Amino acid sequence: MQGYTVGAPPELLRVFRVLSLITAIANAGGNVLLLLFHRPIFALLGVPPPIDVPSFAFVSGFSFTIGVLAFLIFRATQVSTDLLVTGIVAKSIYSLFTFYFYTIGELHWLYRFFGIWDGVFALIFFFFLIYLVSPDLNVLNAGAILPGAERARGRSALLLYYSLTGNGQVAMQHVKEGLLRKGYAVDEKVVEAEEPLFRFPLSWRRFWRITFRAVFRRPAAIKPLGIPADHAYDLIVVECQTWFIGMAAPMEAVFEEPANRAIFRGRDVATVHVCRGLWRRTQAMTIRWLNRCDAHVVGARAYSNPGWEPARLFSLFIFLGTARECYPRWLCGWFLQRQRLSEDKLARLVRFGEALGERPCPGEPATLTGEVSG
């Protein structure tokens, strides 16, 4: 994707810089106050005085250093990838040690708060790091449709997707509608999991099993795709859901099978991601898999369900367990959120399909549709 650049969204940079400054002040300034005035502060909050003062001073100094690091990130937001990695590691260490001491004995709520604070900011830094190290994704998410590969176009497309709840399937039907409008013949291949674990709705037991597997990236078994490497499709559209800030296990299994990778080699491929909200890492994982398969990525869109947090998260859990949207009804609208893409985002996916059907030929400039992911 050389030759195509896109500026960082000012809103995202502004929010991240504000958050970096907040944690810089909290870590650096807060620990200076604790080191100088911990006796009256602890007495006021009911915190037991430190038994080992040198160890207390060391931990406070470590946290102070993290605050200084966060301030440096605030000062050099777009070029501080090394600082971000250091910040992620440092804040994760502090958070993990807090969790460890919490599990082996009593830990005052103030120390637990400090550990949760650093854990949250480790995630914030991690997500922004993904943004900084993936300029190619920024181009695609800004609405660009890139020129296709040097090969004949038979106006034939394949939609390859896995949809647990049906949200992704609906999204792909709208992409299909756009391709059909541009004269494409479209086939669909639904990825099927062999394990009965992946059935909707989910019991609590199966929900937590999937959660555990998603966190540790444990692969899933899927049925053979049956797509030969010499297929006639000149365009493949891959859809993947987000499962716990990563790819859905059945879709990741598609790429983990070496025989499937030839399906994408040298072909124009576009991606669609549908999720509750945190789609950035899932998209990066999918496109990096396609890069390793020597696919020619020409477009990407990611859309999240409507609503606000944490209501959207609670709505998802209820939906996964009951297969009923906005249940109970008296909570619908003002708290519980619908678990489907909005009509506006579905219409954007139709236009995405149309744009893919008219993607530029090699040597032509990228098409800028102006429709961004989000």
Automatic annotation (TrEMBL):
Q: Which residues cross the membrane?
A: 12-36, 56-76, 83-103, 109-133
Originating organism:
Sorangium atrum
Q: Which domain of life is it from?
A: Bacteria
**Does the UniProt entry include the keyword Transmembrane helix?**
yes
Ordered alphabetically, the record's keywords are:
Membrane, Transmembrane, Transmembrane helix
Q: What is this protein called?
A: Flavodoxin-like domain-containing protein
What SUPFAM superfamilies does the database record attribute to this sequence?
Answer: Flavoproteins
Q: Which InterPro entries match?
A: Flavoprotein-like_sf
Q: Does the keyword Transmembrane helix apply?
A: yes
